Amino acid sequence: MVQHLNGWLRRLPVWAVWLLGLIPLALLVWDTLQGNLGVDPVRDIEHRLGRTAIYFLLATLAVTPLLRLTRLNMMRFRQALGLICFTYALCHLAAWVVFDMAFLWAQMLKDVAKRPYLIFGMLAFVMLLALAVTSNRASIRRMGARWRQLHRLIYPAAILGALHWLWALKVWESRPVVVFCGILLLLLLRLRLITAAVRR
Amino acid sequence: MKLTWSDVTPEAAYLSRRAFIAAGIAAVATPALGLGGKPSAFSTDEKPNSLQEITNYNNFYEFGTGKTDPAQNSGSLKTSPWSVQIDGLVDRPGSYGVEDLVPEAALEERIYRLRCVEAWSMVIPWLGVPLSGVLDKAGVQSGAKFVAFETLHDPEQMPGQRSRIIDWPYREGLRLDEAMHPLTILATGLYGRVLPNQNGAPIRLVVPWKYGFKSIKSIVRITLTDKQPPTSWQMLQPSEYGFYANVNPQVDHPRWSQATERRIGSGLFGGRQDTLMFNGYGEQVAGLYTGMDLAKNY
Description:
Chain B: Pfam families: Oxidored_molyb. Chain B: Keywords: Metal-binding, Molybdenum, Oxidoreductase, Signal. Chain B: This is Protein-methionine-sulfoxide reductase catalytic subunit MsrP. Chain B: Mo-molybdopterin binds at residues 58, 61-62, 116, 151, 199, 204, 215-217. The complex is a heterodimer of chains A (200) and B (298). With 200 residues, chain A is mainly alpha-helical. Chain A has one domain (2-199). Helices cover 84% and strands 0% of the residues of chain A. Chain A is globular and about 55 Å long. Chain A starts with a helix and ends with a helix. With 298 residues, chain B is of the alpha+beta class. Chain B has one domain (5-289): Sulfite Oxidase, Chain A, domain 2, CATH 3.90.420. Chain B has 9 helices and 13 strands. In chain B, strands 1, 4, 5, 8, 9, 10, 12 and 13 form an 8-stranded mixed beta sheet that branches. In chain B, strands 3-2-11-6-7 form a 5-stranded mixed beta sheet. Chain B is globular, with a radius of gyration of 18 Å. Mean pLDDT of chain B is 91; it is low at 17-32. The chains are: A mainly alpha (200), B alpha+beta (298). The A-B interface holds A 32, 38-43, 45, 99-102, 104, 107, 110-111, 115-117, 167-168, 170-173 and B 52-53, 56-57, 61, 65, 67-68, 118, 120, 165-166, 236-237, 255-257, 259-260, 262, 264-265, 267-272.
């Protein structure tokens, strides 16, 4: 079964993953233009982009554990999944700057320095940015072992991203709690896999 | 496609109907669902949000935490018959019907700004009566200093109460002088019609100079007391939500700024506007707080 799936995955071109990954963005643009977003489109755009970013972050994180635990091989798509996540994070930030804050730079700077949920979100974004700009063969070659170290930042970025979501809400809501637990689970799995590898 | 009342009645037609009613032919022109209200000097001349916006963007956690959850889930709320228990330090405690407390003939239209603690705002044409008159009916005793309010607690009708995000029932409170202020109303309608369930039917509080969460919905109990009553958001997170909750651009929510707000309905590029002290009602209410440190009494 897994072999069958892997054979199918080998034939799937990477650009197809990009195409699938951009469907949520296309739907969002469609809904915006059609006026399907409801009473407060700014909030909907911002939140949908943020949620999609973190879902792709989860998908990126899941690639290695899936391979180790089930032999399902999605390694070829990990870079694309990570870059799609970054694309949504970038759009999410841009929506905040342009639509929500309407370029009120003074208030934005003050808020980012002061508000934990914005500090978390911005830190997560800076980490993802570092990963995105080094997400190419040339960087891997140039940076050597340091590349692997740098790219472990995906874990703190994921945790900060989920905290950013939780901290912006007034009460505990189920979706971000599930996402946060998912990230912790993947992180624990990863730690166990690393220690197992070291022991071997 | 789901048809709503706003589809039936375009705002322009509604506005002209209001003019029509004002012209004194109310009795003939008012449609079945319609309510009329005397115009009030307290009304703002800002453009009200559309009925569609007001009824599809609600914080009413009794029906879910999403902004459209109340519109989707509040159909199960049975608003008639409905009575409000008035007790505590009053001369005539008892169970009062909504129509006794807010007779249709006494309704006033109050077009108020609403500022949510989440930093968005709307303009809403409420129909209601001053709370002071309602309290006078029950006879406030001289020892009373505060008024406590409670929302219905019935998970059968309010499915959001099945999750314990808040210690139900929802509770709110005012100091007696705030409750007696002429700006404070009990509303039973909006936009010339009976209050929709998602907006707090059949009877709710509206205190326009305070953050929206103070304006408790679907009230079943009003208690006059000599002690400051516990209020839901303060119970949940006292460092973030105080008893007073006056709109104040200088006192931020610990997790976000209150300096500016987004007016719902202003579109993608509507930007933000400055939040006004006491939501712009300072002239009327600032006197209630003379000598108080509003950064401490947030």
